[in-house]
Amino acid sequence: MSGIVSFLIILVVVIIAIPFYRVINGPTVFDRLLAIGAIGGKVIALILLFGLLFDRLAMFVDIALGYAILNFIAGIAMAEYFRLRREP
Description:
Elements: H1 2-25, H2 29-53, H3 57-84
């Protein structure tokens, strides 16, 4: 079981690298916002996989829920900031 979870952790880290490219080279700010949201969702899955690896899933579910709430609030705050920002 540990080998499968380790493989899945490596796979999710590789999958996180795909939207990270869009964060770096996004043509617009909104592409970057969407990529950050996608990375946040994948990090939640990564946290839960670490919970399986360490056999402490209940604790890591709480951490993942807290991270999900922070990710949601940060996404809303960034979207609101760019909506209200005035161009010079």
